[in-house]
Amino acid sequence: MNPRSLILFGLVACLYLGTGFLQSWNLSLSILNAALLATIAALGVNMQWGYAGLFSVGTMGFTALGGLAVVLVSAKPNTENWQAGGPGILLALILGALSVMAAIFAWRRLPKGQPRMFAVAAIMIGGFFLFRAVFDPNVMAAEAINPQFAGNLGGLGLPSLVAWPVGGLLAAAAAWGIGKTALGLRSDYLAIATLGIAEITVSVIKNEDWLARGVKNIIDLPRPWPVPYEVNLQQDPGFLDFVARWGLDPVTTSTIGVKLLYAGMFGLVLAAIIWAFERALNSPWGRMMRAIRDNEVSAAAMGKDVTGRHLQVFVLGSAVIGFAGAMMTSMDGQLTPGTYNPLRFTFLVWVMVIVGGSGNNWGTVLGGLLIGWLWLVVENVGPNIMGLVTAPFPDSWLKAHLLGSAEHMRLLTMGVILLLVMRFSPRGLIPEK
Amino acid sequence: MDALNALVAFLNFMFIPGLAYGAQLALGALGVTLVYSILRFSNFAHGDTMAFGAMFTILVTWWLQSVGISFGPLPTALLALPFGIAATALFVLATDRVVYRFYRRQKASSTIVVIVSLGVMFVMNGIIRFIIGVDEQNFGDGERFVLNPQDFKAMTGLAEPLAIKTTQAITVVTAIAVVAALFWFLQKTRTGKSMRAFSDNEDLALLSGINPDRVVAVTWIIVAALATIAGTLYGLDKSFKPFTYFQLLLPIFAAAIVGGLGSPVGAIAGGFVIAFSEVIVTNAWKKIFNYLVPEQLQTDALLQLLSTDYKFAVSFTILIIVLLFMPTGLFKGKSL
């Protein structure tokens, strides 16, 4: 790291410290935690875009899959719902997967021509009806039981930490499927396909109540291992003793302590990902990736499997995003599918990567922490500035409208920042070496 | 009689809504395809351009309504449309001057320009939310129906009603007029021919003295007009809500790619393919089925292939099928 980057990191640290001193440490730390999670997702995007030049805008979908994994792994099991429809739903899903596989098999094995097309279409359509025939009654049965409080199959009741890698795996599996179809075509096609898979993933989570209760949300997901609950902490004699000795307020200290613990955990994950990826980049594999990104044709001429490597790095990056999504749901303790919004979960992450410096992990971290802070602070500052600007004017319809819509300033701000960086500093704040 | 009822139900619940939706998608996809073939990038800001045009049209409509001007049985929004187009064209031309021109001169790769268009999308989205907010807005007025369902039932004595909403009729008529004008322009006028030449072979077009700035400016104006018309028609037919326009990106891009990115005829065909598949897959077939089968076979099930919440999945699936089996689309666009 050169002095310039150190100064930039110092400035970003000042932003967080300033928020802590001027407003509150609780706010500063919650911004930091959100920013750290977005930064980890941004590292995944940076793998795809910065190191392989893949333009994917499905970040929201992979984040949501990570969140779903937390529900499936760590929520408490709903035995009655499971008994009512669980095995049937599983069977239906397996049947669906089998018919897709059968269609692929037929496509590969049958000779070219119209009969093959009809055969594949028949297998797909037949498979769909078979799937629905098994699926629908079981879903009805499972959702009918205790719909106010459950209605879903529930999870495995395993610790939250287990869910994080599972989130990565789920996202990786989805990425593999989408990469298999859209990689190797024009670069924009991957963008459109990932945009689609993200929307579909979120609408599945929103509408399939048996899966994660849909828009009725799942709450009370357990916390990951060393993090205690504030309430328990406030009754713990050891903790109270500690607080008393230092003359601190037990409530504030417990909330700050929990947030610090989360920040430490996310920081560890972040460091591990950067360490592993920097190692990979300085290996022959990393040099090959850069060669492919800079000139696909020559890399292919040297015998490198361009599409294969693209698939590899696309899956890897998506797994990192899924991991971050799982950590986010774990920290929030709830899955609220209604909050998954592409502007926040896809395009904001892109702004982080571009502003920080695509192709540079440290740049992405800087961009993530900076943009993460801006995103959450502009939300508060925008209305304040608007309040100051409109203060001298008499109360009117226009003033109320301006005050009301000031919170949308942050979209504008992010767009302007993205455009300015793309124009005047396209390599970002910390450019790739 | 039952067969007739089934036919009327099909027309009423699937064909007519599908036709209107397809016309809206086709107009949107035409804009995307024009930007792609002449400016050579996939414009992610197109959905928000549609929303911007519709928003400005709505503002002018409200003003017209407040001063008491109306368009008789037709929606006032049609009168406001030219103002919306003019404002959107100015905005889009300014965007080109401030943002896109720099990358065009640099000959930046198309992916870079796509990312820039994401930035433009953010800015436009912010402006729209700032001006009109995120809530749903209604701005339709005039007669509600061209063909009233009660009148139809009384006229024919059928059990099933058939309704044609004014907005649906206007959508289809406007779309036909716009598409005809666009094709006439591209095929017959000097500027249109130079646009096609520029799209086919940029270097050769420049060599033969075509002014690229003019071609680009005319393209943006046409795109702004298409986007405003598509956005306003969609808003009249359904309702105006800024976020839905962002979500329209997927079906619009799917339509453009299915038809063949860069091919105007393809964009129109793609729009209708996507719209009708969406309607057929997400509509309940119960009514039609029950008319057609004998009484003992009738069912209480909805006979719906997918719930309407999954309409994106339909455009997505069609997109994937096309990507896998014919990446250049139905009308051989210039892909790959």
Overall shape of chain B: it is globular
Structural class call of chain A reads mainly alpha
Please indicate the percent range of residues of chain B in DSSP E strands (runs of 2 or more).
under 5%
What is the overall silhouette of chain A? globular
Main beta sheet of chain A, described?
none
Distance, first to last CA of chain B: 52 Å
Order of helices and strands of chain B: HHHHEHEHHHHHHHHH
**How much helix, percentage-wise, in residues of chain A?**
over 70%
Q: What's the total helix number of chain A?
A: 18
Helix content of chain B: over 70%
* Strands of chain B, total number: 2
Low-confidence runs of at least 5 consecutive residues of chain A: none
In round numbers, the mean pLDDT of chain A is 89
Order of helices and strands of chain A: HHHHHHHHHHHHHHHHHH
Could you describe the 3D structure shown?
The complex is a heterodimer of chains A (433) and B (336). Chain A has 433 residues and is mainly alpha-helical. Chain A has 18 helices and no strands. Chain A is globular, with a radius of gyration of 24 Å. Chain B is mainly alpha-helical and 336 residues long. Chain B has a two-stranded antiparallel sheet with strand order 1-2. In chain B, α2 runs antiparallel to α3 (77-106), α6 packs antiparallel against α9 and α12 (264-282) packs across α14. The longest helix of chain B is centred in the first third of the chain and has 38 residues, at 2-39. Chains A and B meet through α7, α15, α17 and α18 of A and α4, α11 and α14 of B.
